[in-house]
Amino acid sequence: MIFSNSFLGELVTAADRSSRRRQHFNVHRSHQESCQRLFNAIGVDSYIRPHRHALDPKAECLVAVRGSMALITFDEVGHVAEVVRLCTEQFGKAAAADTGVGVEIAAGRWHTVIAETPGAILFEVKAGPFDPARAKEWAPWAPEEGTVAANRYLAELRRTVKERLGVASPSDLRTV
Question: Does residue 49 lie in a domain region?
């Protein structure tokens, strides 16, 4: 399969139409495959509840395909430990020394990702097989998706990203 720009555009359109403001596309054909691979289009207003992969401990690799995102990691009680910008080289002016194209996250590390630009897409890779019942452990200190508290928490996370990384100029964060 070829992952064309039109394919990526359709994925972003599906994310925009989704109530969760994100859409994934599995490249792998089954949960039993030894390598799980997927594209994940994330809208700027999408809240992904912080989670970790400790119940089925497997590292996760995230690579920016389009746009700019922030990976936020947390300590055990929910304090922000690290904020890393992940972006494509199209955002080169915004890229500082601490900006990455991708990252590998340890299995037991609490984390979330927020999109900084419209049309942001990640490519995710994780060892299989995949067990949906053990895939994620939700952070008990973070609000559930779809709640008013989640909207407030997402705004707080955005402020933290801005404080720690700054914001690139609008011309650097153009829609791709």
Answer: yes
